[in-house]
Structures are given as structure tokens and as C-alpha cells.
């Protein structure tokens, strides 16, 4: 089974490009993920290697690969694996490289729900074939644009008699419970998942779902009953629980019925939030038709002039207009927007279009995703993951510098720092007299931003690279810049 072609050459051996262990892959001692150049490698111990070979020979798994629901995977021969990995591993797999790794707390409600449904679909296919997944974590899924993909091939294992789904608790904590928060309480789940890498505990959910809320779909069974069972079995071993379930008649058919029931529940957990200020921002932000056309021409020319666009970051993407434009010139676009409502709408639109080159993410640039988990590196920060050939920052600077009180020099440093060496920044500066900037300044003390000026902004850009393009929009209160950044 060969990984799908994502526009990157697959080299015959990974042994010459240097080796880097994936910090987030240590929790399962049976396998470990490494990066070797552009290759993503998974090393397996004897037991995991046997499970993999049984999985690869099964009837259910290859169709999942072919359909793109599981990341492309192949086993390397000992010669192809080379000497780059420690000798005590029994087998080495090579995986398709995902264009941009994201975290569940950067997804919208519809994204998390679609990822959960894919996980359940895969489990439903695995159970009749005698396999299960050891994990149920949302982190086991990633994205090709608007298409979710399961990446933890090492999570598959043979199903044993009387064994419940080992990943059920993780699934609840990182997928089901966040969806319940949005669907039943109208709460954004992102801060909850960001604060705890293992997700939301049942005990936390119980406090939120008391009284009539207990009767909300899925709550009694998967929150209150699940929490009660956890407390009752806290002192029992896994073997004891498995034996108890087997004696009670827990079979593969029962497990499959439970998965189908979970799928039915998750499909019901939709969340249609009320409109926010940012949903209509493109209509209310004050551009004339002439300004919009000039801006689009400038951005298209900047994208066309650059020699290569592997990755474009569109910061403050809103409805994704410029993300779609960038996708015509780039391998992949990450569309960043702070409002979960806006991102959810954009994701649903991209999904309907079948767009696989634009990934929308919920992220506040004034408070971006930090490194998390063990030693702060198990989940990489946004800055560590972002190395773009082009950074688009359109109608953004004034919101950070005035709206969020970030010094202009810090804003420029942040934007340029998200680009790869030799990349470019395409940025819009909204003059202080522009109606949108004036609206923000009206809510601030007089004279608080003396350095928010066009000449200061241009000097800061010049300190980071060469201004290769400049265009003032017809209204006269906004200027666009193309900046070639230093290598």
C-alpha cells in the first residue's frame, strides 16, 4: 500500500537525510514515529509488526487506504529502511506526509464532528474483521483541506473476546464531550481542549449537565453512567473488567451495535451558532468595489511572482476569499481565523466544494496555540509548525496593533517570523484615518498609539526584508505591501 502522491518525490531510502523523533509519539511503547527528510516513518516492535501485517492482509483495511480515509502507508524493506533507525525495531512503515499538522482545539465544531464520525466509521469497519483501535483520541486524525484522515495506523490491534473498545474513554474526552458542549450548551470547546491534553473528564461534564440537562441526548449514558462506571471500577484491573464483560455476554456484535449507536448520536450533535460580528465583516469592512478589485489584483500578482508556494498562511482569513485565491498558486493554504463561527462556516463551504488544499483553523494570533503536553513539546506550537512560503496578512495589522494593543514592531516581527527563510509577506496597512482604524481608535485613550503610522510600518518592514511591491488602494487609506524576506 503506497502513500498517495501529494506532490513530493518519494525517495527510495530515507537513510541519508538525518533523523528526528516525533515528540508526540512516545505514549505507545510498541511503536514510534520519526521524521527523516520528507519521510514520515513508524518503527514497530515485534508485536506491533505482527499486528500491522495482519492488518495489511485484512479485507477492510486496504479499501480505507484507497479511499483516503487512512493515511497512505507502506512497509519498507530492510534495505530501504537503511540504518537510520535503532536496530531493536522489528519493522518500519513509511506514511503519507500530512500537509499541515493541526490540533483539535484549532478545529471548528463541524470539523470535530466529521473527524469523530470518520473514527467511528473506521472502527465499525474494523470490528467485523476482528480488529479494534486501542485509542480514541482526536489527535489521531488530521486533515487534507476539508477532508479528515486517520493517521494512527499503530492504533489498530486484534480484538479479544469480551474486550470493550479501549479507546472509548479517550473518544469521549477529546471528541464526544466537546461536541456535547457545543450542541447542548452552545459553548466553544476549544479552550477546554487546549487546557487539557487528555480532554474533558466525565466528572467535569457531570457538573455542567445537572437537572433537565441530564436528559439531553447522549448525556445520561456517556456522561453520568460512564462517570459512575469509571468510579466503580477504579480499583479493578483491565483483565478483571474484561472478564466481567465476557461473563455478562459482551460480544463483538454488542460492540458493533454500540459503535453504530455512537455514530447516530454524533450525527445529531450539530451546532449552528448565532451570527457574530465577524461573519459579515467582508460586507461591513468598508471596501468599495474598486478597492476590492485592486486588492485582489495585487495579491494575485504577488502570488504569481514568487518562484514557489508550498505553503501559504492566510492570517485573518474570514470567509476564505483570499485563501481560495492563494490555492490557485500554492500546494496548500492554512486559513487562520479567530472566530469559531466564521471558521465553521468556512469549513462547511469548503467541504461542500470538495476543497482539499485549504485548511481552516480557529486561532487567535494574539494568543496562538502554545506548545503543550509533556515538556511543552508533545503538541507543537503554531509558530513551530508554521513555516510558510507566503504569509498573507490582509486587513489584520490594525486589529492586532490597535484592537489588541500589540506594539507595531511586535506585529511585524510575528508576521515575518511565520514565513520560511526566503519567503515573502503580503500585508495590508490600514492608515489611522481609515474608518475601520478610526473606529478602533475611538475606543482607546487619545495618543496611545503614536507609532501607528505608515512611515514607521514601512521602516519595520524594511528591517526584515526588501519591499518589492507597494500599492495604495483607490480610497487612499490602505496600502498593500509585498516584502521579500531575508534567507
From TrEMBL:
Lipid biosynthesis found in the keyword field: no
Superkingdom: Bacteria
Annotated region (Disordered), positions in chain: 1-24
Keywords: Methyltransferase, Transferase
InterPro entries noted in UniProt: SAM-dependent_MTases_sf (IPR029063)
GO molecular function, one term: methyltransferase activity
Signal peptide: none
GO terms under biological process: methylation
Protein name, per record: Methyltransferase
